[in-house]
Design a protein that fits this description.
- There is one protein chain.
- It is built from eight helices and two strands, in the order H-E-E-H-H-H-H-H-H-H.
- The chain has 280 residues and is mainly α.
- It has one domain (10-277).
- A two-stranded antiparallel ribbon has the order 1-2.
- A hairpin with a 6-residue loop joins strand 1 (22-23) and strand 2.
- Helix 4 (90-106) packs antiparallel against helix 8, helix 6 (144-177) runs antiparallel to helix 7 (186-223) and helix 7 runs antiparallel to helix 8.
- The longest helix has 44 residues, at 234-277.
- It is globular.
- It starts with 9 loop residues before the first helix and ends with a helix.
């Protein structure tokens, strides 16, 4: 695999691939590539599901309708098993999270040099950017800002469903008098519940980020096999074959990982909202 502009060594190659296209400084830094791909993938999700809904028929369904119906039934069954209240928004929310996170994760299967090389060409050709400083990462779930932002949305929904299912008084009482039902233990209960509530978004975000960051890094390491290959030789051909086999094997395994991570994020979201909604 050809060395990307500005990546003259294995360390430089890895560092370059792990840098985001950013705007701003400090706390207000925005990872533009993460926002861009999240929006594009969300639009793709909406486009195909809307198209399936508009073309839905009671006669023999097409392939797209079949796929969407299978996916909707799968998510609906997961919601029925995990959420024991009655709410019309849970199933659409779960479907959105599962598909969107899966599409985030799926970007990890695109060859690591493909889109960054294209971005380098566009930046240097049309905007006069230095190729050494054109950074581009395409896996939103390998960005902790994205995973934490999504988990914070779930965190806020926990309070929304807590107040909706129990009411303000019961929710507050449970927060202050659980697990120890005595006013003397209110400070202790408060600390326990604050830690428990904060652990939910943190665990959601770190689990998804850690798995996809590791997967992205493995693909980058596999790309190093032919990083220094500049001519055709038996050794370089052998390294290229080893790279193809390793990349193909890891991609097959990673398909299971990205699907499982989307399912885990969706399932835990449903469970957390169900726990907030139900009376204890």
């Amino acid at each position: 695999m050809a060395t990307e502009a500005g990546a003259v060594s294995p360390a430089g190659y890895i560092t370059h691939h792990l840098q985001h296209w950013t705007v701003g400084e400090g706390f207000w830094t925005v990872n533009v590539d993460t926002v861009l791909y999240s929006a594009v993938l969300g639009a793709i999700f909406l486009f195909f599901f809307r198209m399936a809904a508009k073309s839905a028929t009671a006669d023999v369904p097409g392939k797209l309708q079949n796929f969407v119906e299978i996916l909707v039934d799968f998510v609906d069954n997961s919601v029925k098993e995990s959420f024991h209240g009655k709410d019309k928004l849970i199933a659409p929310l779960a479907l959105t999270i599962f598909v969107w996170v899966f599409l985030w994760n799926f970007m990890d299967l695109i060859p690591v040099d493909l889109l960054p090389t294209f971005a380098t060409w566009v930046g240097s050709t049309f905007f006069g950017a230095d190729p050494h400083h054109v950074y581009h990462r395409v896996v939103p779930s390998a960005d902790m800002s994205a995973t934490f932002g999504l988990s914070m949305s779930v965190f806020l929904l926990i309070f929304v469903y807590g107040f909706r299912g129990k009411g303000a008084i019961k929710f507050s009482k449970e927060f202050l008098f659980h697990p120890f039902d005595h006013f003397l233990f209110i400070p202790f209960n408060l600390v326990l519940n604050v830690v428990e509530y904060l652990a939910k978004p943190v665990s959601l975000s770190l689990r998804l980020f850690g798995n996809l960051y590791a997967g992205e890094l493995v693909f980058i390491l596999i790309a190093l096999f032919t990083l220094q290959a500049t001519e055709v030789s038996v050794m370089n051909m052998g390294l290229g074959l080893a790279q193809f086999i390793a990349g193909f094997a890891w991609a097959l395994f990673h398909i299971l990982v990205i699907t499982l991570q989307a399912f885990v994020f969706m399932t835990l979201t449903i469970v957390y909202l169900s726990m907030a909604y139900e009376d204890h």
